[in-house]
Amino acid sequence: MQTSMTSRTFGIFLLALAGATAGVLPAEAQVDRVADPNWTTPRTPDGQPDLQGIWGNKTITPIERPGSQGQAFLTDEEMAALNQQRAVNSAAQDAAPAQRTVAGRNVGGYGSYWLDSGDTWLSTGQTSFVIDPPDGRAPIKQWALDTKAYNLANEGDHYQHLSVWDRCISRGVPGSMLPAGYNNAYRIAQTPDHIVIYHEMIHDVRIIPLSDAPFADGRIRQWMGDSRAHWDGETLVVETRNFHDRGWIASSFAGGRIKGIPTSKALHVMERFERVSESTIMWTVTIEDPNVYTAPWTIQMPLTAEPGYLMFEYACHEGNNAVPGTLGGQRVLDAAAATQEQ
Fold it and tell me: Would you say residue 38 has pLDDT above 60?
């Protein structure tokens, strides 16, 4: 997911709008923009609210709001202007791909046509996925930011410093629900006693019991945790715990500052899936991990129906050269540095 402007430019844009009350939308507009007041949620044969289908979330909206100020929502006019600017920037990038390969960077991804990260802001108009705290920023403890920085600086030294996505393991929860540069589709299926969420990226599949049965023994820890689901009226609520401490909360570049932030065994995730129209499910997730964050924080985004989308196998390990390439490249650099020191 690439923004149509740099974070710095977007930050300046928001600062310019901060404090301007004209046109600023109230918080409830986040859902009102996409909700259908006449919508009646269909039912599965066993009577559950029907969330089934293929849903997507590709967008240029950032996970966090750049800077510490700025409005929480864009007006329709602001969204239209930013979406148009994105189109202009993408056309310019595609017309001059060589400029994207300076110093060997972006090889194979120099044009927007190589990716599928979306070209519009979220339909709600929100300026960040993070809606709580109000500044749109995750309340990350300093040690976690330092750990992220250390892994980034030393990713060529050991595979454990590399992203669990690069290693084709899992993007975790809630990371597997966050958008990336491609493969931003999710298939939801339901049975009377289970919810199944199939993630196109890394082909993760969550099979979630609709049950009030106890969670697994706390000694059993997993990449995507242990989940239980129940219905709160028309809303599906999924609680997940029993994570181990080897994952990242987000592994995609689209995660911005939260990419690479570690998880701990105290991670507790609460998700809500509420279908508000034929074409929209509002997904809200509250993340609590007192070892990593100073307070719980919440992300919200619309999932948009994509009935014509074709989901293909994401064969991550087949032909994956990311890990050996990164580690091998660092050995070459180490050898060159050793030679210079002699």
Answer: yes
